[in-house]
């Protein structure tokens, strides 16, 4: 079965995501120094992605 032409991308769209996944937030908080080792990963503070 073939894929419908409207589902194929005309190149990849590189839109900036405003929502980070949990592991991305932990990495970003570690880089900023606000995540402490042993801290829970549930209930992390909201973080804006790097620009």
H and E string = H
Rounded to an integer in angstroms, the radius of gyration calculated over CA atoms is 17 Å
Record field, number of beta strands: 0
Strand content: under 5%
Structural class: mainly alpha
Major beta-sheet overview: none
What count of structural domains?
1
Number of helical segments with 4 or more residues: 1
What fraction, in percent, of the residue positions are helical?
10-25%
Low-confidence stretches: none
Task: Report how far the terminal alpha carbons are from each other.
Answer: 41 Å
> What form results from the Cα inertia axes?
elongated
Mean pLDDT, to the nearest integer, reads 82
SSE layout and pairing:
Blueprint: H1 22-32
Can you give a write-up of this model?
Helix content is 22%, strand content 0%. By secondary structure, the chain is mainly alpha-helical. It has one domain. The longest helix is centred in the middle third of the chain and has 11 residues.
Please give a quick description of this structure.
This protein is mostly helical.
């Amino acid at each position: 079965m073939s894929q419908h032409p409207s589902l194929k991308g005309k190149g990849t769209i590189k839109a900036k995501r405003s929502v980070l996944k949990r592991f991305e937030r932990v990495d970003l908080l570690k880089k900023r120094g606000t995540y402490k080792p042993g801290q829970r990963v549930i209930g992390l503070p909201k973080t804006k992605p790097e620009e």
